[in-house]
Amino acid sequence: MKHFSEISESALRVVDAAEGLIQQRGYNGFSYDDVAKLVGIKKPSIHHHFATKGDLAATVAQRYTHRFREQLLRIEGHHAKAADRLAAYAALFENTYAIDQRLCVCGMLGAEVNSLPAGVTHEVSRFFEVNTDWLATVIADGQRAQQLRPLPEARALAETFLAALEGAMIVSRSSGSARGPAGVAHTFLLSLLA
Amino acid sequence: MKHFSEISESALRVVDAAEGLIQQRGYNGFSYDDVAKLVGIKKPSIHHHFATKGDLAATVAQRYTHRFREQLLRIEGHHAKAADRLAAYAALFENTYAIDQRLCVCGMLGAEVNSLPAGVTHEVSRFFEVNTDWLATVIADGQRAQQLRPLPEARALAETFLAALEGAMIVSRSSGSARGPAGVAHTFLLSLLA
DNA sequence: GTCTATACAGTGATAGAC
DNA sequence: GTCTATCACTGTATAGAC
Fold this sequence. Notes:
Two copies of one chain form a homodimer. The first copy, chain A, has nine helices and no strands. By secondary structure, chain A is mainly α. In chain A, helix 4 (53-78) packs parallel to helix 7, helix 5 (82-98) runs antiparallel to helix 7 and helix 8 (154-175) packs antiparallel against helix 9 (180-193). At the A-B interface, helix 6, helix 7, helix 8 and helix 9 of A face helix 6, helix 7, helix 8 and helix 9 of B.
């Protein structure tokens, strides 16, 4: 698969459209024709940029993970304390959800993982690995500096926080009533700090 | 839509097969032919029992919610303390996940909610409503009896707990490394009780 | 890079016989 | 309740011209 940094400008428009469709409808919920209509070209032109649907989705996930890592770096540069970093992290999910209730690309693909081409599955698992590792480090640092309670263990908290954010997007969009990732993060961090 | 308690024995086998397919692959990831092959009959026979795919999925979600409510009642009958009830609740998710890493039917459908027929969407939102209400009541009772910390507020905790369980199934299945709903629930309840 | 045309499998769904 | 046969349509994907 081509790396997203090497693709043309028209291919980028295809990736943008596919990303939105995946967040709204999932991998099995959109077609090349949907992408073509959004971009304003014909279906075979999409195949010119991405030979298979799996290639396209893998590129979407790859770029999504890359952008997330950029944001993680930005958070480290802007916030020193663990609690502030975790709050800024939660805002990444809230900002995504704020655009037409879009889901996390990898949360959506994660739900569909058993019906995905192998290349996509790999990118999705990498996203979760990157995020869990980063959260675990932030939390462990915060515990060591006594900014956070020493228990539960950092990695367990990291997995729980990530799961709560991913789940919050899904439950909120379906139930209408629930308060979304921001609310869930707030509740979680309250418990973590108290 | 017909209520699931009124359908025939052969229709029940169809619902069983569709339920498993939804948990593994999602609404947009299975076809009438997949169901037919699992049940051992032909595609038009599925249509005889459920005119549309939406009818079938709605019945699956309806029965799933009903069974969940039976389990909630059973928990109330077996456990008096809030913490025990919450742990037993988490076990419902863990037991589902333990069967070939099956997702919660409504967690999966919730992710796909923007590409679902209206009848299915309605059943999914009802599932989340039932679960959030029950959890909020259990937690509020526990807080009143001083078995749980008085903050955060019961409904906020209920939404967060449910989101964490739904998210844990998705993240664990995709990442391989994470510890599943049981681990996440354990971590969450530790924070809640400490 | 985009197009028209097309291949070909699969999709949800229906008609009508047994 | 199940079947064969068939429908109209959409799905991913390819060939080849511009």
